[in-house]
User: What shape does this take?
Amino acid sequence: MADKFQGSVVPVERGFLDYVVREPLGVVGQIVPWNFPVMFTSWKLGPALAAGNTVVLKPAELTPLSALRVAELIDEVGFPPGVVNIVPGYGPTAGQRILEHPGIAKISFTGSTAVGRAVVAASAGNLKRVHLELGGKGANIVFPDADLAAAVAGTAFGIFHNQGQACIAASRLIVHSSIAAEFVDRLVALAESIRLGDPKDGTTEMGPLTSPQHRDRVLSHVKVAEDEGGQVLTGGVAPSDAGLAGGCYVRPTVVRAGSATRAATEEVFGPFMTVHEFGSDAEALELANAVDYGLGAGLWTRDLSRAHRVARDLRAGMVWVNAYKRVNPGSPFGGVGASGYGREMGFEAMHEYTEAKAVWINVDAKLPPFYPRA
Assistant: This one.
């Protein structure tokens, strides 16, 4: 995109040429989460550098080593000193300094919605531009005409991939009542078959969560769901198997819960899905749009008209039809509502890292003096 990012010429009154160029912001700050540390480092560095900026990037304190390895490679290939600066540290110290530093023109933050609000507050002092990619509570709607085998497989991938530690995870299954029993039975059977183990073992299908604290947080949501009257259909526990006990593992969890409960409205960020039934397309949309988040959403149907209509009415920055959790460097990634604003990737990301400058050239306009005595 670095050599395909174009300005524009604006049609204005005769005698003038007005063109718009995109200029880099200068120094930008980027704060990367722990769930996909290499991926998010690349997502943020790529467009910022391609747009001509320099970067100060802070990796998450739980996962700094991959970003530091990227820094070594950047030095090895000959980037000029100071173009990319990797600054490990904690949010309240290193992160806060990046947010408040007057020499940093923009902050790109990926993380929780709660911290995102703090980022906005900290940036107000010097009016930094802010891009936020925050939490999600993805709706995944299965209509009665869906290919059930594909929908079960895609639903499981949408929630259990990376142990559910993804902002776009398909954490709310919204399934038509006429197929709900069969669909949930098949999903539960698949969830129970997932092989937990060492992520370095090629046969492992689900590894551990990132930390003991996060494992305990995910398990606490199971207790919350049960206290609210939810029914745990499978999982909800740490495994006791030899080699897994004592690790940061949580079994794939499926919970039947009310649509207004904490289990169904708060982001868990783990292998934890709630199940909800609907009878009509309107009810499915009402359930899908009932949370504050609006990042990713999916739907499964063979009806092309329904697919377009529902995709249009879903309150989300990304919608997948008969698939889930697909991304591409050319396609914008981001959300609405409590999921933040601004976009990663695509030309939209290049706009996030540049300012538009309008240049007016008087070619042959004969302008009469505004003050006749001049």
